[in-house]
Amino acid sequence: MSDGTLDLFDGLDDPNEPQPTDHAALHDIDALFALLDRWVERGWLRALDRALAAFLHREVSDAPPLLLLAAALASHQLGRGHVCLDLAQTLAAPDLALSLPPEGDDLSDPPPLPSQILDGLDLATWQAALDHPELVTNGPGNTPLVKTESDSNVRLYLRRYWQYEQDIREQIAARLTDATDVTCRSDRGRDGADRRPDDTTAPPSGNAPKETTIPRRSGFSRDGADRRPDEAIDTTTLSAALDALFPTPTGPEPDWQKIACALAAHSHFAVITGGPGTGKTTTVVKLLALLQSLQLGREGNRSLRIRLAAPTGKAAARLNESIAGQVGGLKLEGLSESPEALKQEIPTEVTTLHRLLGSRPDTRHFRHHAGNPLPLDVLVIDEASMVDIEMMAAVLSALPPKARLILLGDKDQLASVEAGAVLGDLCQRAEGAHYTPATCQWLEQATRTPIPTDYQDADGQPLDQAIAMLRVSHRFDASSGIGQLAQAVNRPLAREHSPKEKKRAVRKVFAHSYADIAHLNLADADDPALDRLVVEGNPAGFLNQGKGRQHRGNELAPPTGYRHYLEVLKQQRPTAGSDLEQHREEYDRWAMTVLDAHNCFQLLCALRRGPWGVEGLNLRIAKALRRQGLITASDHELERSWYLGRPVLVTRNDYGLGLMNGDIGITLAQPHPQDPNRSVLRVAFPTANAEKPIKWVLPSRLQAVETVFAMTVHKSQGSEFIHTALLLPDAPNPILTRELVYTGITRARHWFTLVESGRGMLDEAVTREVVRVSGLGRLE
Ligand SMILES: Nc1ncnc2c1ncn2[C@@H]1O[C@H](COP(=O)(O)OP(=O)(O)OP(=O)(O)O)[C@@H](O)[C@H]1O
Questions:
Q1: pLDDT at residue 300 greater than cutoff 80
Q2: What is the SS3 assignment for 261-306?
Q3: Helix axis angle, 65-78 relative to 47-59, nearest 10°?
Q4: Which ipTM score applies to this complex?
Q5: pTM of the full predicted structure?
Q6: Alpha carbon of 320 to ligand 1 centroid (Å)
Q7: Ligand 1 center to residue 517 CA distance, Å?
């Protein structure tokens, strides 16, 4: 398993042993459903996927087994982040189409594998089986399935997901072309809300949209001024404003932040991507100041209605904090005669996308849609890599045609857990920029920054002209191991000479003795080194015990573990007691301090189940903390109940309580309202509202939460912790990819510990890349 390909049964079967083939399921309906049942039983397929095949069979009894199998597999891909089934890819690597093997499956008496079932099947035969006009069409229509063909790719979609992809293409295309082209969106009718998206098989109601092709050439004219006639920006004015916002030249390298501002000011759709600390927030705050000042500079204009949003509550809270800081520090003297007034026009409040669109309980419908668009002129979405295809389609459809959409995010992070890696797909060509000569010439005028030839491309596509990649980290410099490690892990395999070289480059970073990274090899599952790490933070693993490190002129505290927040909890607990109303502020302050201290350390892992998954680790860590006297709880309480200090993660949006998936709270104690001698447990969540900074919730009201001593990397997206430890499991698993490791590393602000519980797992992970299947990558 060294070449980056998946060998799911490594060590379980002899790969040279010829596998028996089993083709009955391809011809016989009963055999097919018997097979699907066995796959569902093993957890290789979801019951939902089988149910779709059964539904199609009931509706159209002569649907061939090969079609039903493709439909079940297409449905299954949605649960794994892909919006469709790529037939050729599936034939090339059939076993990747299922969730094989589920964690903890010992694989005794396994059902036949897809590779056995599909052995010998060719693409033409499978494709021919999909020619069933009642169930499959090549585009608009009423069939539950859609097939698309381009080059050698044949893809099968559930109609709803094909429609999302079409909607996104169409809306982005409209924003990338001249204002007059925006009218093409009206073809689809203003019925975004009428669709029945919760019915997987139901086609969207109303008229199918006209497919929009995105023009091959950029709309940039020589000076760029006629691109958006309604909002034409004079290049000289823009250039002067950009100089005021970016007064210090960056040296010989182009100022990518300034370039990003110029590009985004010029388009109704823009993406600003970049790794951690490259200045996405800094740039967008300057961009908003720029747009607002240009707007207010036009006589009689009202200020722009700007909204900021993020996919999760946690991400929204983090952006809230950093935006507020950035706006406070903005220097706008050169941009406006009344800089303070201009600052007032830049919002600092960040909401979640669900809240922005107005989600309604128990339905996928939102209050805002094409028929009731959002009342805004500019929408900024941070952490856009976490936005799935369904949400992105909903946002785009609710956006007024003339509004600007600015997406911020790190294209290399793990994509959303739901289907569709929209940001990653849109940014496929971001590394090379591909700016056309017209764009370069205009950018050079506007930013007075020459664009290096490496980033120019006479064949650049319109989408390329709307994407800016920030390439310099201001958080991690060359002396930062976290920065170097993230870079080494993130380098695509295609750029290395061999997987071996990639592994060597990553290992070399650890060999370099950077002060901010540590590596821990566990001898076995019971190695107490892991308990020491989570309790104390393993400072001994860092150079000089983590002491004496400077950051921006201040000495950093050495890395900590969970002892830190539990001690803060104990030591700073208000003694005032009795009347809660009188002492509310004191309790709020306590909760804020504990939550801050909790943010000093987080253990991340890849899996959910097993000893190296969230479930096993949570219990192990709770017991280790109990041994140290840091928490007091019975076994039952540790496993199933509440105790002082229990940190919890919200796993489902709860609009009633105003809590979002991803929010973290800590269980604290408050005086009982009726009996001050007793205390009552309440979970404290940060609110990002300065006047009411803490939301106190009774544990019994929390329906979907889990202990979060260990958190999956997926759930950690949008969060950042002072010391992050990433634990890799002891056996290969398809979930271990370079994107996962990169996302884990980049959650660390000052300290990072990599924990390997099995030899070679880091090597495994960094040489495996996520392959997402969608048609959006072809959006040019
Ligand atoms: N051009 C710059 N020169 C110096 N410091 C900068 C510059 N741009 C950003 N910074 C600083 O770098 C840090 C990270 O910036 P910022 O928060 O904008 O990055 P980001 O890409 O949004 O980070 P994140 O990974 O948190 O999303 C901040 O402290 C910011 O003040």
A1: no
A2: HHHHHHCCEEEEEECCCCCHHHHHHHHHHHHHHHHHHCCCCCCCCE
A3: 140
A4: 0.98
A5: 0.78
A6: 14
A7: 21
